[in-house]
């Protein structure tokens, strides 16, 4: 069984005629569809994760203080019926996990697992010598989430800067992929999903963080973000991808270069250079397939016209774009965030 959000979304959303491949060289969108314009949610939803349950999509973001545009949020939850119109629901936690003395709750990854909603999250400060990854559960995608404590910290697992978790399930086994500029790694979890067990496997080099895996037409696609995430209009974040026939790799780009070499990766998305563009697009969420068979990617970015909140927080708003496929490789049109009116997903 594949990663549950992808399977679940495909079950409900993916329409495909027999023998038809999705978005190989062209995209078909009904002419009467609605429209959207980025960003689709603001002021902030950094490091997003998304899933669908019932009639709603739910998205989760890093702990942030939205200041005068919304106040402090301990892992905000927002929801939408169409990926375009979002509303704030609540904060995922009623109180901060306490298995570390200090730090922020970053980059939540939420999945429906065994009838519950499971969140893996980063617990870290900037420059933290020993950040870690925790796990929490809820009965509803709207929370509240009950913290279950640490899965591992950096010293315990032997990987520096162990943040940015991503959950994957296959053949009855549970895995966690994680890492931030010290390699991307994979480890099997115990049956409860609360601790690592067995050896860790390195999937990519030191140039990536924010791992996400998508399975499509016989390939595992490993997405990661390179560059700087949080320097306002100077941010250089961008999304790269490699693919493999095996979950354990090796992951290669289209030129055959391994993601392990620290410089490779097929470019999916980078920032706009225009004054009215977007800086630092990255840390993409799960890829969603709509009723028309189109792939959509959510990620955060900062509009160059307003890259920060009044309190100095990076204004990492939520962006949505059509993900095209050509010769088996994903990319966003022009390799940059859309800034004009676009046709919306079809549900």
Automatic annotation (TrEMBL):
<dbReference type="Pfam" id="PF04616">
    <property type="entry name" value="Glyco_hydro_43"/>
</dbReference>
<dbReference type="InterPro" id="IPR023296">
    <property type="entry name" value="Glyco_hydro_beta-prop_sf"/>
</dbReference>
<dbReference type="InterPro" id="IPR006710">
    <property type="entry name" value="Glyco_hydro_43"/>
</dbReference>
<dbReference type="InterPro" id="IPR050727">
    <property type="entry name" value="GH43_arabinanases"/>
</dbReference>
<keyword id="KW-0378">Hydrolase</keyword>
<comment type="similarity">
    <text>Belongs to the glycosyl hydrolase 43 family.</text>
</comment>
<feature type="active site" description="Proton donor">
    <location>
        <position position="209"/>
    </location>
</feature>
<comment type="pathway">
    <text>Glycan metabolism; L-arabinan degradation.</text>
</comment>
<feature type="active site" description="Proton acceptor">
    <location>
        <position position="47"/>
    </location>
</feature>
<feature type="site" description="Important for catalytic activity, responsible for pKa modulation of the active site Glu and correct orientation of both the proton donor and substrate">
    <location>
        <position position="164"/>
    </location>
</feature>
<protein>
    <submittedName>
        <fullName>Arabinan endo-1,5-alpha-L-arabinosidase</fullName>
    </submittedName>
</protein>
<keyword id="KW-0326">Glycosidase</keyword>
<dbReference type="GO" id="GO:0004553">
    <property type="term" value="F:hydrolase activity, hydrolyzing O-glycosyl compounds"/>
</dbReference>
<dbReference type="GO" id="GO:0005975">
    <property type="term" value="P:carbohydrate metabolic process"/>
</dbReference>
């Amino acid at each position: 069984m594949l990663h549950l959000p992808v399977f679940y979304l495909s079950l409900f959303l993916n329409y495909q005629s027999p023998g038809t491949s999705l978005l190989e060289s062209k995209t078909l969108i009904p002419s009467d569809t609605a429209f959207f314009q980025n960003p689709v949610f603001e002021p902030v939803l950094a490091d997003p994760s998304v899933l669908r349950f019932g009639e709603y999509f739910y998205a989760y973001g890093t702990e942030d203080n939205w200041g005068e545009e919304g106040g402090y949020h301990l892992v905000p939850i927002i929801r939408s019926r169409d990926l375009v119109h979002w509303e704030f629901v609540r904060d995922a936690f009623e109180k901060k996990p306490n298995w570390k003395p200090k730090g922020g709750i970053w980059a939540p990854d939420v999945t429906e697992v065994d009838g519950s909603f499971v969140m893996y999250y980063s617990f870290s400060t900037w420059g933290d010598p020993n950040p870690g990854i925790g796990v929490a559960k809820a009965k509803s995608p709207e929370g509240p989430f009950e913290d279950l404590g640490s899965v591992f910290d950096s010293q315990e697992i032997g990987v520096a800067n162990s943040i940015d978790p991503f959950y994957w399930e296959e053949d009855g086994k549970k895995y966690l992929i994680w890492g931030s500029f010290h390699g991307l790694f994979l480890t099997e979890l115990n049956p409860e999903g609360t601790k690592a067990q067995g050896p860790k496997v390195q999937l990519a080099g030191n140039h990536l963080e924010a791992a996400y895996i998508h399975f499509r037409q016989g390939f595992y696609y490993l997405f990661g973000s390179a560059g700087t995430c949080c320097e306002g209009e100077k941010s250089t974040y961008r999304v790269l991808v490699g693919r493999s026939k095996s979950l354990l790799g090796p992951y290669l780009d289209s030129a055959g270069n391994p993601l392990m070499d620290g410089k490779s990766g097929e470019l999916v998305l980078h920032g706009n250079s225009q004054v009215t563009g977007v800086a630092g697009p990255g840390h993409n969420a799960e890829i969603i397939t709509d009723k028309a068979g189109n792939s959509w990617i959510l990620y955060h970015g900062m509009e160059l016209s307003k890259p920060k909140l009044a309190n100095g927080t990076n204004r990492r708003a939520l962006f949505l774009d059509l993900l095209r496929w050509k010769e088996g490789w994903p990319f966003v049109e022009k390799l940059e965030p859309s800034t004009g009116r676009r046709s919306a997903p079809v549900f």
